[in-house]
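Example 3.
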Amino acid sequence: LAPELLGKLVVTADGRAGRIVEVEAYRGEQDPASHAFRGRTARNSTMFGAPGLLYVYFTYGMHYCANVVAGSVGEAQAVLLRALEPVAGLEAMRLARPVSDRDLCRGPARLCRALGIDTGFDGVDLTTGGGGIWLADDGAAAPDAPAVSGRIGLSKASEFPWRFSIPDHQGVSGPIRARGKISPQG
DNA sequence: ATATTGATTCAT
DNA sequence: TGAATCAATATA
């Protein structure tokens, strides 16, 4: 499911939108790197819910990251949104954080800042639009052969090749990759 | 390479 | 209670 999100749009009620260009998959209680690895807690309970929910968590004392819940109820699978290509509402994004347009949504915490996502959005349903943020499909196809590489920024299980991105897209978060020794792209 | 920053979690 | 950890980013 994770690679199929590539090319989809994330849209907010106030007119901001970005195209998904990079994601990572997390596989619930079987995945040592997943927040759900040690079972359900107050923080990760959204992951155990229905597919299509938005799981937002706060980390490093200052950053939010957003995931799309996948799998079925109770499986706690999720797809981390790592980078978007800004598509609409760029003015509001620049206001949230003044950086170059290319960097607005390049990185899991940056895209949350740019779209105004915080833990208040944790648990909203991305399929109905009622939560103020939703997924849209404008017909752009996911790449036939998405780039695959090791996950980024993890102290455990970073070797699992569950990071997917649009090949050679400039919006993909790059340099952080140097921390892992995985042969990148593919 | 290092500072930032605070919630969450696991161990006393 | 306390310490370690953390799916990150900015700055040097």
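The radius of gyration of chain A is 15 Å. Chain A has two helices and eight strands.
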